[in-house]
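Q: Convert this sequence to structure tokens.
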Amino acid sequence: MSQEPSYERYHRQMILPDFGLRAQQLLLASKVLVIGAGGLGCPALQYLVGAGVGHIGIIDGDQVSLSNLHRQALFTTDDVGQNKAEMAAKKLSRLNPDINIEAMPVHLTNQHALDILDQFDIIVDGTDNFETRYMINDACVLLKKTLVYGAVSQYEGQVAVFNHLLPTGERSANYRDIFSDPPKEGSVLNCVDAGVLGVLPGIIGSMQAAEVIKLITGIGEPLVNHLLIYQFNNHQLFTVKIMPQSKTSSFIPIDAIAFKATDYAWLCSSSQHALEIGAAEFDQLIGQKNIDIVDVRALYELPVVQTFNHVRIPLPDLKEAAGQLKNDTVVVFCQSGKRSLQAAEALMALWGTARKVYSLQGGILSWIRFVEKQ
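A:
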């Protein structure tokens, strides 16, 4: 990687008033992590790479799918099935070989988030689910990192700069100062359910890149303590002033240990709906202590499971027999996953949020198929 900016490559921005060589050197010396190489991440990455940010990390465990291509213009049909982070890094390196681009083809979790985010100066949230957004926000607060937030839903987009260090030595508002509690499951639709025009995340992701450049170079006024809202239908833009709220600090884990122990998937699931887990995750839970595993099928149903410890309580008897379940975590399964989901919701209605209840998605048959492939 070149230690000095290429005058020819960056000439058009270096001749701008108040930019010059110094701003370009600041970009080259900066480290920015983009979480999610999707609808928001793709345009943000393209403009950050083009601008000459010296070290860019890309983390995304997903693969390119055909349904991505209308809004993730960094990819092509030939990339379908390939990891997004790796493909993005490969293509962006051709755009600007003078900088360092690091691909991390994994899903971000609270078990390694602090270690990864700590290596970067600014974090860009290009994710599309509340579970990860709250986790990223809390990690940035704990690490004292500036977070550039973006989100889209149907014809509306949002951009903000969170947790930025102010001249007073204090930090600006963070995501929880606007949305202290996760919305109930299903109350806010994601792009899969609500739909999105490809151009909208392109606009918002570009705005996120603009905020990063402003933060690094000191040019302009970043969206600190402000939430920008963009309406696609009429191109209206307006900002809402936000301020830190003392009460929201109690929602954020107090340290790294508490952060790693926080179940963000659970926090972001509705108290009225059970959280489903897949066969691989179910397989990891088998044999763990302090977990009740319950088969809610009728007693005559096959196959009979003998490979792990569990109790068999048919769904009609579950409420009456719930007293048998003593542990704080309960996993229920049936043949296909439908009755177990009903069972889990019945237990949650009985216990509230006092315990964690999971339903095996796809039922015991999905787990058997998973084991057979191992």
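The mean pLDDT is 90.
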